[in-house]
């Protein structure tokens, strides 16, 4: 049985794509089969992070029945499978997000995990994704606007019967000018399952178009992403 997990946030730029990518790689390192789905139809980034700049096969073309499922799945050397969204604005305009359910139906029982890089905010596309996922990981930065926006995202996810797996606190300096983890947990009502600091190795891995958990699996940030993967893996085994 495939588990569908969306990585969501109230704001853009908090690190959803990096988190999706590296939790996926950490699951691969645990022996799981993982497919990443870029469901951010307006501003997709997953493919770019893995070196696929302008892929011919995209979820957009699959939804329009111009490509079959195998034609839109790319295998990265790290072991991750990726279904990219098109970076073209014209392609975005021609794609109906109401049809996203179809890609979820085709991926059922094809892999252990499908990790979805969702758009930020509370828009229609996010709701379409949450209708088809089992649980969500919330990604936030340690500031009040990010956290309060995430609270709305949690409420939306629960309205669509998603389990909240936990919070990834991303891009922290762990300094006095930031919200403390306990404060964030108190507001959001869910535990922080990874605390990712500002890390040069993350920037290097993005530049090299490789997952951090593939290039630097023993780094402190990679160990944090591994914690998330271990929790998701444990939940799957318990089921």
Structural features, described:
There is one protein chain. This protein is 41% helix and 18% strand. It is globular, with a radius of gyration of 17 Å. It has 11 helices and 8 strands. The protein has an 8-stranded mixed β-sheet, sandwiched between helices. With 239 residues, it is an alpha/beta fold.
Mean pLDDT: 95
**Helix and strand element order:** EHEHHEEHHEHEHEHEHHH
Strand order of the largest sheet: 3-4-2-5-1-6-7-8
| Structural class by helix and strand composition | alpha/beta
Q: What's the alpha carbon Rg, rounded to whole Å? A: 17 Å
Q: How many angstroms separate the termini?
A: 10 Å
**Low-pLDDT stretches:** none
Annotation, overall tally of beta strands: 8
Q: SSE layout and pairings?
A:
Layout: E1 3-8, H1 16-29, E2 34-38, H2 46-49, H3 59-63, E3 74-75, E4 81-83, H4 89-93, H5 101-107, E5 113-117, H6 124-130, E6 135-140, H7 144-159, E7 163-172, H8 181-188, E8 192-197, H9 200-207, H10 212-215, H11 220-238
Parallel strand pairs: 1-5, 1-6, 2-4, 2-5, 6-7, 7-8
Antiparallel strand pairs: 3-4
Helix pairs in contact: 1-11
Brief rundown of the structure:
The protein has 239 residues and is α/β, with parallel strands linked by helices. The chain is 41% helix and 18% strand. The chain is globular, with a radius of gyration of 17 Å.
